[in-house]
């Protein structure tokens, strides 16, 4: 609701708090590298974001232990107050940005004008 009706205000706030990043990335780039790059930008920003490891185990693959995860809208479900629910989306270590884009285009909910929107959350 906030994003839909107050998009510019929302994006301005996100930008002021260094939570909005825009970048051109080749579709062949491994998706875990895109996430790692985003984490590095957030940590080196003037806000100096800090992330803890998601799981503390040497058995967990590095791409499964990234402190932020891709979020996907839960189809057909909304909370009582109308919010769209999001859930973490597992990503293969071999997935490229192109793979993720193709997967998300099937939903049709991640396109905004000429931009493809990826939402991340800390878990």
Task: Give descriptors for this structure.
single chain; 123 residues; alpha+beta; three-stranded antiparallel β-sheet; two-stranded antiparallel ribbon; 4 helices; 5 strands; 30% helix; 20% strand; globular
Overview of the molecule:
With 123 residues, the protein is α+β, with helices and mostly antiparallel strands. It has a domain at 29-53 and 63-123. Helix content is 30%, strand content 20%. The chain has helices spanning 2-5, 7-16, 31-44, 97-105, and strands at 68-78, 84-88, 111-112, 115-116, 119-122. The protein has a three-stranded antiparallel β-sheet with strand order 2-1-5, with no helix packed on it. Strand 1 (68-78) and strand 2 (84-88) form a beta hairpin. The radius of gyration is 15 Å and the shape is globular. The model has no long low-confidence stretch (mean pLDDT 79).
